[in-house]
Amino acid sequence: MNIKTNPKSKSEGYLRVIPTIQNDWEKLKDSMVELSQIPAILFSGEKDTKHIFSIDNQLIYVLGLGNEPEYKSTENAFRRIISQHKSLISKGISLEFPSEFPTHLIEPALVGLQLGVYNLGFYKKDQAKNSNDPKVEVHYDQKGIKSLVDRAQKIAQAKMEAFKLVDLPPNKITPENLGSWAKNAGKKYGFETKVFEPKKAKSEGLEAFLTVGRGSAKEPRFIIMEYKGPKSQFHLGLVGKGVTFDTGGLNIKTQGMHHMKSDMGGAAAVLATIQLVSDLKLPITLTAIVPAVENAIDKDAYLPSEVIGSHAGLSIEVIDTDAEGRLILADGLSYLVQNYKPEQVINLATLTGSSIGTFGYECAALFSNDGGLSHGLQQAGEAVGEKSWPLPLWDSYGKEMDSEIADIKNYHGKPFAGAITAAKFLQAFIHEHSSWAHLDIAGVAFGDSEFAKTKSGTAYGVSLLLRYIEDQL
Asked: CB neighbours of 436 closer than 8 A, spacing ≥ 6?
């Protein structure tokens, strides 16, 4: 999106967008003659309201944000401008922030405005005709607006990458394609990328990862990305579940399979985050791993009751081939901790329906063996509208994963505590790392929204991780 800041003159024919906080509305009306005649019965600045009118052939869009608007509600309010009102924009948008507009809301406003251009019609014949990426000019008389615009553009670009990675179909987003994405992004944004093909993965002992990919014609890829920022202040490790499509394997899914292109929502968040951190040149070291596989079925597919190996050296009894995400994460976590030794480790995964059963579609399930890390992630998520809530990691839950024949089993097979027992399985592969968190994002990475007619990606985790990282600096 082409955005200019504080141009010398306002462009004619642009849609004028004027946001307001409810408590500031009367003051704003007094200061702008074109707003002075709007009656209170039509508009008062309440949350999620707007008033559109024309004066002297100039179309004006007044946006109400309510009192004390939050990051996410502000982002969504601005996203609606382009997403839901394309017909109002003929030449461009003139975004006019009043002088008293809170500076901390500029970022979500600018991010949301840019997200409004995103749509799902990737393969529609008339996609080019329906696309709308208008010119934008931003008017704000406070200092630093240019740097705020630059930052918001980088955040919006990363979030739209996360949208796209989840929303594109599984014949386009394959493990190989994710590996190519990581290599190309590394060259563009300045991080190093290594991609292990099956032969290399086998020599590295990534047996659980390779087992899941056995049944697919699409070869798995184990993706490692390293960003080393200027004057790095700490080392964070990320792992994202990258199941590009999940049939369930031989324990085949019986419903909702067409949504399983979204089973790499954790990978999308991690890939977009390393892009963003590199683009912003943050002073940290970030190592990110995405084990990318397709869980499919053929004569080589792994079987329930198999005993398989793992990078950590633990043998795993396979109870359910649809509990595959934890198997690839186990190797990802083990490889990260043993080879890169980050100070903190966070993994994100669309892991269990149990987390949805607990929290619905409101927040992620959070597990951590470090109270400070857990609290930090919660606070960061609350600040940007990507909520999480902690669940316990008590040892008694770990006993549910005991196996008679192997060191551990991948599923306890009982209709309770599914998200917790999955987390306990992952914990067995972190080599007793003292600062680890697992975010089960099954209910928040892909879902219904006002911005699409079908379920779509949310980019959950990108803003959360950015805020958490910057809170540590």
From this structure: 333, 344, 345, 346, 347, 368, 369, 370, 373, 427, 430
Q: Name residues whose C-beta falls within 8 Å of residue 280's C-beta, 6 or more positions apart in sequence.
A: 151, 154, 466
Selecting among 164, 326, 409, 424, the annotated active-site residue is 326
Interatomic CA distance for residues 331 and 333, integer angstroms: 6
Q: Are strands 135-139 and 3-5 parallel, antiparallel or unpaired?
A: parallel
Is 225:238 a contact under the CB 8 Å cutoff? no
253: annotated active-site residue:
yes
**Residue 60 · residue 16 · CB < 8 Å:** yes
Q: Output the DSSP codes for 22-88.
A: GGGHHHHHHH-GGGTT--TTT----TTEEEEEEETTEEEEEEE--SS--HHHHHHHHHHHHHS-GGG
Nearest to residue 160, comparing CAs of 126, 109, 111? Answer: 111
Instruction: Kindly report, residue by residue over 133-172, the tens digit of the pLDDT.
Output: 899 999 998 889 999 999 999 999 999 999 999 999 999 9
User: How many whole angstroms separate alpha carbon 225 and alpha carbon 182?
Assistant: 8
Positive or negative: CA dihedral 413, 336, 438, 172: negative
From 135, 253, 387, 455, active-site residue: 253
Q: Which two tokens stand for residue 90?
A: 């003929």
Check if the beta carbon of residue 69 is closer than 8 Å to that of residue 47: yes
Relative to beta strand 49-55, strand 92-96 is unpaired
Q: What are the pLDDT digits (tens) for 250-265? A: 999 999 999 999 999 9
Contact between 323 and 308 under an 8 Å Cβ cutoff? The reply is no
Place of tokens 């047996």: 207
Active site residue 341: no
Q: Specify the range with the lowest mean pLDDT, choosing from 30-39, 109-118, 331-340, 378-387.
A: 30-39
| Contact criterion met (CB below 8 Å) for 312 and 431 | yes
Give the list of residues 6+ apart from residue 174 with CB closer than 8 angstroms, or none: 218, 244, 294
133 half-sphere exposure, CB direction, 13 A CA radius: 9
Q: Residues 6 or more apart from 226 whose CB is under 8 A from it?
A: 191, 192, 193, 285, 286, 287, 288, 340
Element (H, E) at 132: none
SS3 279: helix
Q: Which domains does the chain have, with CATH numbers?
A: 3-139 (3.40.220.10), 157-471 (3.40.630.10)
